[in-house]
Known about the structure:
The complex is a heterotrimer. By secondary structure, chain A is mostly helical. Helix content of chain A is 76%, strand content 0%. Chain A has helices at 2-34, 36-53, 55-58, 90-126, 128-142, 148-157, 161-189, 191-198, 203-214, 216-239, 251-259, 267-294. Chain B is mostly helical. Chain B is 78% helix and 0% strand. Chain B has 12 helices and no strands. In chain B, α5 runs antiparallel to α6. Chain B is flat. Chain C is α/β, with parallel strands linked by helices. Helices cover 31% and strands 23% of the residues of chain C. Chain C has 11 helices and 12 strands. Chain C has helices at 49-56, 84-90, 112-124, 128-141, 147-151, 160-172, 190-207, 218-224, 242-247, 252-259, 299-303, and strands spanning 5-18, 21-34, 38-42, 65-74, 77-78, 95-98, 178-182, 210-215, 227-232, 235-241, 309-310, 317-318. In chain C, strands 6-7-8-3-9-10-12-11 form an 8-stranded mixed β-sheet, with helices on both faces. A 4-stranded antiparallel β-sheet of chain C has the order 2-1-4-5. Chains in contact: A-B, B-C. At the A-B interface, α5, α6, α10, α11 and α12 of A face α1, α6, α7, α8 and α10 of B.
Amino acid sequence: MASKVTTTQSIDLARARKNTRKERWQSFWSVMTQNKAAMVGAVIIGAYLLMMLIAPILAPFDPYDISLEDKLTPPSMEHWMGTDDKGRDILSRILYGSRLSIGVGFASVLFGAFFGITLGLIAGYYGKWVDTIISRVLDIMLAFPGILLALAIISALGPGLINVTIAVGVFSIPLFARIVRGSTMEVKKLEYIDAIRTIGANDFIIIFRHILPNVMSPIIVQGSMRLATAILSAAGLSFLGLGAQPPSPEWGAMLSSGRDFLFSAPYMAIFPGLMISILVLGFNLFGDGLRDALDPKLKK
Amino acid sequence: MFLFIAKRLVQIIPVILGVTLVVFLIMQMVPGDPAAILAGEGASQDTIEQYREDLGLNRPIAEQYLTYVGNVFQGDFGNSLKNKQPVLDEILLRLPITMELAFYSILITVVLGLAAGIISAVKPYSIRDVSVMVVALLGISLPSFWLGLLLMYLFSVKLQWLPVAGWDGPANIILPAVTLGVGGAAIVARMTRSSMLDVIGQDYIRTARAKGLKEHFVIYKHALRNALIPVITVVGLQFGSLLGGTVLVESVFAINGLGRMIVDAIRTRDLPMVQGGVLVASLVFVFVNLLVDVLYRAVNKRIDLN
Amino acid sequence: MSKEVVLQVKNLKTHFTTSKGIAKAVDGVDFTLHKGETLGIVGESGCGKSITSLSLLRLIPSPPGKIVAGEILLNNKDIVKMKEEELRKVRGNQLSMIFQEPMTSLNPIIPVGEQIAETIRLHQRLPRKKAWQKAVDLLELVGLPSPEKRAKQEPFQLSGGMRQRVMIAMALACTPEVLIADEPTTALDVTIQAQILELMKDLQRQIGMSIIFITHDLGVVAEVCDQVAVMYAGQVVEHRNAKDLFKTPLHPYTQGLLKSLPNIHENQEVLQTIEGSVPSPYDYPIGCRFADRCPHAKEICREEAPELLETENENTKVRCFMHTEKWNSIRQEGELVCP
Lengths: 300, 306, 339
């Protein structure tokens, strides 16, 4: 008898949750589609993702094909972005490089989000000394200015694209953890969490089925903003020669080799940088819109 | 106020210890034998053992850490693997250059950012506001290392107004400082604008207008001072990414600052140098944050209540 | 016996353009304020009384708000038509205002004395020191203990009642002819409320100014007001002497309001309420705006909009067909549907 009551109650709760989530999604969608800037951002991001997928179809040349007699030709009908110092087609390299540059960004944010969310949930949910310890660790991570923590990690792990991904990802952990911790603490105080506990839900169910969905919106906003920074940081580290190594067509690495030819062939540096800038712009536009749509308090 | 500063000073001790721990762990995370790395490539087994003994690398890790912290607080950051000179000497040579660059950059961040933010907020949704905000959005989207190259191409290569690289005179400072400061300026501008708009909608601004004050009095005396309070925190945080940004900008403009020292040291696997550089930069950031906290508190006395 | 008119508002309309359409928050407000008198503007929240008060000083945020019609005559000069420069000389000087929220209406980071003194410097061109001294005197006048010390403090160091006293001191700084008080006591404790009301009455006697008192609280009106203008759906529906209004309310809405007041002399079991709801400011009916809720409504009330007309008693105005001569000859609603 008692178990029957429990089931109906939890079904009702689940349905109510589903409905509110549906409503929230609908209102979110309508706000987003009305926000022109956010839509422009979404289109830019979409175009880049498409470019990642169909780079081999779009690329007119082999990105690694060296042809020294064609080196350093300015943009032309044949080579829209010119060729580099080894005669490789810059456009083709940029198209292939999108997979590396964007991929590293996404991978590092996923890495940071996974550990950050986990730590934040644990700290916010359990509180007390667990929270104290995790919060202190996060404080220490945030005490490193800018990409210096990433640099410290790379100095230990050694240069390379995978290590750059980890290093940039580690830098995202405290940012996710802080937001999730705060939201978790707020959600935990809500009465319905107590109600669910009394009908027999355990910590695991409460955290993953009830608290996590409630803290999703700040995570998504932060994720979008972090993607922009992550792509910038990863490209920056490659630019310093600590990430992707030549002949990789990663954009930061391309920019780095273009620097040596700034006088004679500026297009070698201009196009990779332009590609990074437009993508980051897209994420920033989209992130601004997301924030407005998901957090009405901040809307002006 | 004095009590507050004392309290904050005590609070940053664990943070500083944590930072030294992370920096210390760099060495432990390196694959391979730290003694072999410190002895340098091609060192004989005897030399390696000698290093292990001298540096105490055969003792427990906790003890090694305590020794490391003790050394650091006595100003001993170890010796460079490359030239065997004390790391601290090199840092003391490089740090002033980076601090000078950081100073001019933060100046640009604050002055340019505030001006742009105010210009925007005074006439929201006007053409002026929209164009300033579009520029600010570009400002936060351009990678500093690319912007640096573009500026260098334009002003040094094409127009030949400014020197390409180096750190010899005031003309050398302009491009790197602008490159490094613009991103922060864009963020400060966006923050100032939204803070100003928020304040302009407050009841006390209506009161000021009801008194018959001129509009520029309302804006500068009543609105701006309140709007600046949250901006202070943003500027403080901006200083951190600016300090990180010196790594890139110093590399672009071939400036022999702390940032470039760290990057070069990573390339040559000169680990004590990396440790020293990262540690010093982080300590600078921790103390700047403390300064910002104190400033914030001085401006916003209402925190007393909490 | 007619007294000198200080402020006269004629057919004031303040509309807001929003994404949902045009909100006619104030849609034809008329009232007259005599020298030395206190006029209460009463109505439910959303009836447009606060927007009316802000319109008087042209403090409506624009966009979205705009005064689209009407006149606000202060000593026969129309505030609506004034240039910015001229308007600034009136604000805080001849016409000043106290706001509802003393907690948020003072600048949080400027000492309260300076906030008063700057008004004095602005309008009376006094040097800094003298203006400050006057600010301290004003704080003493409004009954703030140790005014010299308080003047140097920032608002967060003062209680709500003290802040409202500061607001009053600020409003009185240049001895205005008209003081507009927009729910000045709503945010305060009941005991503080009484003190502030007493203070305002006292100061009015000393300075001889006129007061416009905006409130939803009929009890406060009975206590401080000489004249009353009752607002409903953006319009004044009844405008007359306060004593008469409480004795014999004329407009059905006023009658309903008074019936819904708790009365300590009678042993009421249930408080009466007015049935129905206020029409939306985006879409007012063609006829009388109260018709849907009115127990006396006839067909004409839905077809024609009544005007604010003077009745046989002098200085008594009401916006209702019931008090016109033709009322009794009009058939009831539903009566004689077929010719």
